[in-house]
Specification:
It comes from Kibdelosporangium phytohabitans. InterPro entries: Acyl-CoA_Oxase/DH_mid-dom_sf, AcylCo_DH-like_C, AcylCoA_DH/oxidase_NM_dom_sf. With 303 residues, the chain is of the alpha+beta class. 52% of the residues lie in helices and 14% in strands. It contains 10 helices and 8 strands. β2 and β3 form a beta hairpin. α2 packs antiparallel against α3 and α5 packs antiparallel against α6. The longest helix is centred in the last third of the chain and has 30 residues. It starts with a helix and ends with a helix.
């Protein structure tokens, strides 16, 4: 997986336009194509691309030829903490943990502000925790917990000012990039469904038509969103990002519900690639916070 990703990068496959730079749709379309091809690969590619965008937004250059990730989860009370100049803590869902070169780790400082640190993962004070990533879906993304133990932080490791990570316009633009990957994963499942149909009955055709419509509708929303972001790159696109992510999540669950009704159990039991696609999509799309995020949209609309 990592070898494949490094090959894509070496060939220029992840030299993507920066979000808000005038060609955001090309960026999101490239991420969607990767998701349509292989979701764990796309997860790692999106993390690397997001890291480069964050560094660019902070006026920083990445370490040459380094493969990056972004580790910012604060799930279940876990997370990194910066106390003085020392970084400690456990970060969950660290995709690519055992194979990446560097990671942008978001930590909370003494004042509760989010601070982004560019960390060299070769440092032995940064270690993945065996047994903390044991899923079926997205297993190849290699996303275990990572423990940081008394890592001394130098000035050149700090990316942006305190609060930069959450305050920057690119935070919401990057969130839509993740939605593009989800949508690509949904389209990939539909590709397999269509390829396996030889003489569809009316009910199967109806499901395919519904899924095609859902995917194209969400795709159209992303096109609109890219135009809005390019038109006002420093604007507040929080509601737009939440809406795009909710639409992509709904489309993914429509695919997960309808695809097995079209195919029946055979490919789920005899075609490991198809079964893996379903499992990958189900796990990855749960980065969306379901009703919690929908409630946030509702509050914005009502306000």
């Amino acid at each position: 997986m990592i070898t494949h990703l490094r090959a894509i990068i070496a060939e220029g496959g992840l030299e993507l336009p920066l979000p808000g730079g005038g060609d955001t749709i090309s960026r999101w379309a490239a991420l969607a194509r990767l998701g349509r091809r292989d979701l764990p690969l796309a997860r790692l590619a999106e993390g690397h691309a997001d890291a480069l965008a964050i560094l660019a937004e902070a006026g920083r250059k990445p370490v040459p030829e380094a493969l990056y990730g972004v580790w910012a989860a604060r799930s279940g009370g876990a997370g990194a903490a910066l106390r003085g100049r020392t970084l400690n803590g456990t970060v969950r869902f660290c995709s690519g943990a055992r194979h990446l070169d560097r990671a942008l780790i978001a930590a909370l400082d003494d004042d509760g502000h989010s601070v982004v640190l560019d960390v060299d993962l070769a440092d032995d004070r940064v270690a993945s925790v065996p047994g903390t990533w044991v899923p079926v879906g997205m297993d190849a993304s290699d996303s275990p917990d990572v423990v940081v133990d008394d890592l001394e932080v130098s000035d050149d490791m700090v990316v942006g000012s305190p609060g930069f990570y959450l305050r920057r316009p690119g935070f919401w633009q990057g969130g839509i990039g993740v939605a593009a990957v989800w949508l690509g994963g949904a389209a990939g499942v539909l590709d397999d469904v269509v390829a396996g149909l030889s003489d569809p009955d009316p009910h199967q055709s109806a499901h395919v038509g519904a899924l095609h419509t859902a995917i194209r509708s969400t795709e159209a929303l992303l096109v609109h969103a890219a135009s809005a972001v390019d038109g006002a790159p420093a604007g507040d696109h929080k509601l737009l990002a939440w809406t795009c992510r909710a639409a992509a999540e709904r489309t993914a669950w429509d695919v997960l519900d309808r695809a097995p009704r079209v195919t029946g159990p055979t490919p789920m039991c005899r075609d490991r690639r198809f079964a893996q696609r379903l499992a990958d999509l189900q796990v990855y799309v749960r980065q969306h916070h379901a009703e919690k995020d929908l409630a946030a949209i509702g509050r914005e609309v009502l306000a």
